[in-house]
Amino acid sequence: MGVGVAIFLVASGMNLQQLLNHRGVLSVSAVESGSNAAPADSNAGNFVAAGGATAAPQPAGAPVIGSPHALPPPLAASDARASQAIGIHIPRLKLNTSLVDLHVQTDSSMSVPQRFTDVGWWSEGPRPGGPGATLIAGHVDSRNGPAIFYRLKDLERGDLVTVDRADHTSVVFKVVGKASYPRSNFPDDVVYRVLGKPSLHLLTCDALDAATGHHTANLVVFADLVSTGPTKHPVR
Going by fewer Cβ within 10 Å, which terminus of the chain is more open, N or C? Predict the structure, then answer.
């Protein structure tokens, strides 16, 4: 599978600003439109770090996550009131699961869920309901078959996605579009947006190359904030 996901915390000696100024791995070339398009992905089983170096092996079909470039630091003071994400519910996909934290790696790429049954969120990025786009990613497939975000492509305009927060509140988002972006031309500044209106971006890999067994794009589903309120259906 594959996914492109976000920006992040520095687990190496770099500080956040250095990381944000470091060009990431993902690329995409489509512009967010109202149509059903999809995103870009990386080599199955490996992340390609900026500069072409191969990072530590990841699960097959792992989403490739690169750091955006020239973006302001995430989690502004105005976002501090928004609680961390702990669960996600997508009725159309019959998905109701907890979230794992995803962090930036020393090669400036984003980590991905270690298991194909997990969904993760960029925990150092915008929080659900706060300014910017909350980033949530999952695998589309594995060597053994479909993974947790295999049906992400089935989401349509108007579908609702609920993100539960640690403060026992939930944020509801409505799908407004989706796009598939080639990894060679990924719109970091659009997907990894840390400012502006509260939004949700769901990412996974796309465009499997049967000859190589690698995905060549990433699918991004875009959703806008609808409402916030008490959590009604705790994660199972």
Answer: C
| Backbone angles phi and psi of 95, in degrees to 5 | -110, 130
Percent of the chain with pLDDT over 70: 62
Whether domain 16-70+83-230 has CATH 2.40.260.10? yes
What global pTM score does this model have?
A: 0.70
Alpha carbons 188 and 69: distance in angstroms, whole number: 7
DSSP state of 21: T
In the chain, domain spans: 16-70+83-230
Region 73-97: mean pLDDT is 78
Neighbours of 157 (CB within 10 A): 14
Cα distances from 192 to residues 57, 116, 149, in angstroms, run: 23, 23, 19
Report the alpha-carbon angle 19-105-73, nearest 5. 30
Whether 174 has a pLDDT exceeding 70, the answer reads yes
Does the CA dihedral 175-177-178-182 come out positive or negative? Answer: negative
Write out pLDDT tens, residues 134-144. Answer: 999 999 998 89
The arithmetic mean of pLDDT across residues 6-24, rounded, is 34
Which residue is listed with tokens 């049906």? 151
